[in-house]
Q: What sequence folds into this?
């Protein structure tokens, strides 16, 4: 009951607010990798937020900074109304480790080969003592297995006895058993083959509808992102260059990088595919300096990182 | 074929995965990891044979001295350097206790005794001494290697897991330790301390753990960055849980392999120490001291050196082959996930 009132109280405010997040890695005295540079976005309860961009654009780093696998260099992250970007108190750590969960990219590497599926899934409830008896623990795991489309007999298997899709379902169950408010799906489908990708994406969508959790969906496959996301952020070189609803980004893309990404999507129609124009974009050649740009509101939901002059030029073209 | 047959209704063309039904294979029994290792291990003939050899040698080391009527330290000045005499085989004309056609047992006045491996220059039964010596060699090797594992695993775990400055300092300590020649450390230690089993174990362990700690550290570094450890951290695992539940089980294979290769090394090193005169004190025997004693009269009584040397060789070869087999069975590189 207490949790319900708490939830009702928080309903008004966004679930996750990221403001000016920077994640820099110092390689040596002279060289620092700016993996994420001044990224801001918000995720509301029950929203699926897609984060797209090429390899090395800082997508995964953003996810890992938010869940605090890294300590952010600068910026503020508010989760459930709590600041979780600085030094964490025990209570904040608990909030972060239970209410926020992560699904990893590689279904082979993300499961401990020496543990049975039941122990992998139960890890969270083991750590936080969320059951009273062994029987209850098993019941909770079996319920999760059913929820992600696995059979009860999979509980006593080892990860290498499962197929790729089954393993990823185990990874999803491990996150889901904590009943999180936010799931960070870090390229959760990239390592799967296409037929399994569809299954897993549908599963994620279904789970989102049933539990009402929010998902930060990190991917580079734009068609999947379009299918699942409500809001999409486009990352390039650690900067969030464009942010908007799925419609904004897919139908009214303004930033040349976004347009280049979109033009790279193959069309299922061979006649159209043959003549598909491909836009190329090289920010250095185009003379675009992200650090000079500011965020412009193109509409209530649509944001663009650009200087005033760039905004005028790009919007005119569109 | 009619073209219309290929047309799908919307009902048929729905997306897969929505039904949440996963194909389950029921004939795939839940083999445990250990079970799979054992299957791989025993399907390798060399490994199975070496395991049997080790088992026989260990059993002999335990029971032969108990069952033997002679003691390893009993001196019989009247029955020195007797040749081998084995009941049963003596009827075939081999191992019948004769040398140059003369029955040595009769000549020395002990016609009813059977020394399977003969006696040495003090009249001690070599059969009993060889197995007592094997016992002591194995004991020293196991104790020394157990110390190696204890120190090496702890050291490697700490260095690898906590990393940073602690790791830097710990690696420099290892470098200094390995920079000093092994033999000098051992000889100095054996000069300072009383020679005996504990001293030799310590001498072997003092530098022996370095290899183990290096292997463990490398494994920890590899596993520490893996996604399942990250996943565990996002669930709020304390460091101890990660070490005990994630890192240790995944390092176990490498630890066992290193252990298996360290045992013959320790046996060999002990024999070497004994051979250069730094072994267990008289009248105790280890394989090394037996070979040392035996080789002095190797031209006259070759069996006195050949028999302990044979046991030592078979033991070392078996441990090496077993280590090889274990590596094939355990090594994650060889296993398909």
A:
């Amino acid at each position: 009951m207490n949790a319900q009132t708490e939830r009702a109280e928080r309903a008004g405010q966004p679930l996750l607010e990221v403001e000016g997040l920077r994640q820099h890695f110092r390689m040596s005295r002279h060289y620092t990798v700016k993996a994420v540079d001044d990224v801001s976005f918000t995720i509301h309860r029950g929203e699926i937020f897609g984060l797209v961009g090429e390899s090395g654009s800082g997508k995964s780093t953003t996810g890992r900074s938010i869940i605090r696998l890294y300590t952010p260099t600068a910026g503020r992250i508010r989760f459930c109304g709590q600041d979780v970007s600085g030094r964490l108190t025990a209570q904040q750590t608990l909030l972060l480790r239970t209410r926020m969960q992560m699904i990893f990219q590689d279904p082979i590497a993300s499961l401990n080969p020496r543990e049975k599926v039941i122990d992998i899934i139960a890890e969270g409830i083991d750590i936080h003592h969320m059951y009273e008896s062994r029987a209850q623990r098993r019941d909770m795991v079996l319920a999760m297995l059913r929820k992600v489309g696995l059979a009860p007999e999979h509980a006593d298997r080892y990860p290498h006895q499962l197929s790729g899709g089954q393993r990823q379902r185990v990874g999803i169950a491990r996150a889901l058993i904590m009943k999180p408010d936010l799931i960070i799906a870090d390229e959760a489908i990239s390592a799967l083959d296409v037929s399994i990708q569809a299954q897993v994406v549908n599963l994620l969508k279904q789970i989102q509808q049933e539990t009402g959790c929010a998902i930060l969906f990190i991917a580079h496959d734009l068609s999947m992102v379009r299918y699942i996301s409500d809001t999409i952020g486009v990352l390039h070189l650690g900067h969030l260059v464009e942010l908007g609803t799925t419609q904004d980004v897919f139908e009214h893309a303004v930033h040349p990088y976004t347009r280049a990404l979109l033009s790279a999507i193959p069309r299922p129609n061979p006649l159209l595919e043959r003549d598909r124009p491909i836009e190329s974009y090289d920010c250095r050649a185009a003379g675009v300096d992200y650090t000079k740009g500011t965020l412009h509101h193109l509409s209530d939901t649509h944001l663009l990182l650009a200087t005033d002059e760039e905004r005028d030029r790009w919007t005119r073209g569109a | 074929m009619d073209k219309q047959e290929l047309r799908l209704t919307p009902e048929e063309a729905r997306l897969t995965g929505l039904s949440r039904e996963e194909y389950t294979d029921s004939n795939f029994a839940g083999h445990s990891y250990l079970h799979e290792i054992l299957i791989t291990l025993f399907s390798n003939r060399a490994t199975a044979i070496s395991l049997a050899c080790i088992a026989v040698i260990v059993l002999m080391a335990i029971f032969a001295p108990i069952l033997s009527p002679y003691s390893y330290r009993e001196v019989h000045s009247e029955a020195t350097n007797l040749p081998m005499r084995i009941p049963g085989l003596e009827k075939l004309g081999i191992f019948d206790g004769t040398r140059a056609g003369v029955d040595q047992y009769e000549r020395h006045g002990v016609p009813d005794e059977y020394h399977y491996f003969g006696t040495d220059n003090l009249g001690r039964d070599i059969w009993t001494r060889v197995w007592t010596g094997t016992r002591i060699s194995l004991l020293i090797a196991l104790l020394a290697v157990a110390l190696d594992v204890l120190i090496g695993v702890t050291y490697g775990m700490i260095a690898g897991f906590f990393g940073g400055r602690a790791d830097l300092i710990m690696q420099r300590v290892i470098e200094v330790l390995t920079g000093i020649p092994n033999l000098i450390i051992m000889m100095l230690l054996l000069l300072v301390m009383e020679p005996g089993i504990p001293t030799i174990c310590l001498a072997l362990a003092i530098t022996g753990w370095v290899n183990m700690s290096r292997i463990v550290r490398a494994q920890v570094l590899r596993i520490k960055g893996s996604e399942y450890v990250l996943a565990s951290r996002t669930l709020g695992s304390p460091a101890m849980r990660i070490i005990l539940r994630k890192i240790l089980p995944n390092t176990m294979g490498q630890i066992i392999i290193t252990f298996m290769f360290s045992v013959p090394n320790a046996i060999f090193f002990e024999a070497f120490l004994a051979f250069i005169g730094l072994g267990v004190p008289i009248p105790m025997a280890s394989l090394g001291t037996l070979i040392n004693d035996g080789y002095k009269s190797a031209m006259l009584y070759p069996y006195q050196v050949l028999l302990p040397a044979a046991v030592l060789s078979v033991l070392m070869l078996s441990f090496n082959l077993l280590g090889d087999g274990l590596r094939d069975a355990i090594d994650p590189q060889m296993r398909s996930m």
Summary: The domain at 2-317 of chain A is CATH 3.40.50.300 (Rossmann fold). The first strand of chain A starts at residue 16 and ends at 26.
